[in-house]
Amino acid sequence: MIPKLHYISEGNSPKEVLENIQKACTSGIEVVQLKLENVSEKKFLKLANDVKKITNHYQTRLIINKYYKIAKEIKADGVHLEANHSCPIDARKYVYTWQIIGGTANTLKDCETLLKKQVDYILLSPFKNSEATDNSPKVLGLNGYSLITEALNTATPILGFGEITTNDVPAILEAGISGVAVSEEITKNFDVIKTFNQLLNASSTEEKRHTF
């Protein structure tokens, strides 16, 4: 099954990212997505290896953002591909059969395309965006989430992302979303992981059919 809470790593340097992931794992996160922009692939590989040691120790699942070849090399649990990254079909041919692939979507059409490409979960984003510009993807909110999940009617887990707080969780789940991916809210206070988990797990005992 795809866990209902993902932590998308934050930090301005490999050191900061590593420290934040360590704190998230200590606080009981089940899945970490390793993401760091503006570093070379070589530096990212070194960071990924360092992170893997931490996630192995805590038995936390590790998803690599963007670099599916690194995900295979370090035997991470999966890879997450955003719209401007590689095609999930190409990644699927390359990675191990047991590795999962997630994709980011903003519209119903995006979701349908990702489902055709057989992703294991979809990150539907953004729920909110306080720094939206004219070029930013459309903010979806609860109404957008409800319309898309109803139209899709899929067993593939759909996670919400975009400035989600613990207060948003009950309504997001009501809108048909399976779980949430969180970055800033967790980085500000790693203790909030427990609250997120309680809210997400209280919603349903039904397990998704997808497995890591």
Q: What does this entry look like structurally?
A:
It is a single chain. This protein is an alpha/beta fold. The protein has helices at residues 14-26, 41-58, 68-73, 88-94, 108-116, 141-152, 169-174, 184-188, 192-203, and strands spanning 5-8, 31-34, 61-65, 78-81, 100-105, 121-124, 158-161, 179-182. 42% of the residues lie in helices and 17% in strands. α1 (14-26) runs parallel beside α2 (41-58). The protein has an eight-stranded parallel β-barrel with strand order 1-2-3-4-5-6-7-8, surrounded by five helices. Mean pLDDT is 94; it is low at 204-212. α3 links the parallel β3 (61-65) and β4. The chain is built from nine helices and eight strands. The chain is globular. The protein has one domain: Alpha-Beta Barrel (TIM Barrel), CATH 3.20.20.70.
Write the layout of secondary structure elements.
Blueprint lengths: L4 E4 L5 H13 L4 E4 L6 H18 L2 E5 L2 H6 L4 E4 L6 H7 L5 E6 L2 H9 L4 E4 L16 H12 L5 E4 L7 H6 L4 E4 L1 H5 L3 H12 L9
Parallel strand pairs: 1-2, 1-8, 2-3, 3-4, 4-5, 5-6, 6-7, 7-8
Helix pairs in contact: 1-2
